[in-house]
Backbone:
């Protein structure tokens, strides 16, 4: 899609009702059937907004609803596909975390978290924690020094990274670039900025 005329409208208000009404008026200014992107903090909020729009109009289609994360994933999918990769879903990340946890538990490498590894919700919480640590660039050795579950988390972080590397061989990207790729991206961005500036 090529954007020839892009107009940016900014509306600020501490009132959610006022922000909602401003967004509703903005969208209502387009003819029904116009393809519009509705982005919000949560998918539920975008869905609620679009449902409210359908009550006001006789015909509504072409409203694409995303969170910022969903939109970033969708737009990144073309670049990943060009590299032969597909984006890992949150469920896939949970599966990798669960696999890593069960493997280290089977080998007797974890102690503090061992009693809860099989509990519902553990894989989701672990996947989220490991993702946050990896995105922040926190190493397993730094986590190892933490009290209580630090040693277990360091082992899981190392094991999860190993599992993530095996995912890459399976052509799946998990959203956290390896440090080498981040450095390469920063170098390209600096070169591009130098050419523009």
Residues:
């Amino acid at each position: 899609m090529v954007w020839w005329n892009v107009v940016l409208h900014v509306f600020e208000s501490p009132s959610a009702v006022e922000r909602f009404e401003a967004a509703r008026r903005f969208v209502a200014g387009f003819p029904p059937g116009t393809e519009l992107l509705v982005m919000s903090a949560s998918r539920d909020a975008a869905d609620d907004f679009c449902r409210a729009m359908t009550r006001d109009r006789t015909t509504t289609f072409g409203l694409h609803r995303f969170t910022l994360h969903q939109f970033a994933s969708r737009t990144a999918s073309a670049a990943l596909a060009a590299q032969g990769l597909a984006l890992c879903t949150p469920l896939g990340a949970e599966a990798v975390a669960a696999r890593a946890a069960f493997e280290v538990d089977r080998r007797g490498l974890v102690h503090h978290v061992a009693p809860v590894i099989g509990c519902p919700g553990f894989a989701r919480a672990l996947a989220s924690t490991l993702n946050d640590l990896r995105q922040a660039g926190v190493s397993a050795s730094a986590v190892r020094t933490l009290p209580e579950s630090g040693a277990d988390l360091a082992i899981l972080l190392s094991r999860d990274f190993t599992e993530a590397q095996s995912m890459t061989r399976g052509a799946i990207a998990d959203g956290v670039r390896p440090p080498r790729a981040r450095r390469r991206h920063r170098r390209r961005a600096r070169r591009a900025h130098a050419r523009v500036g």
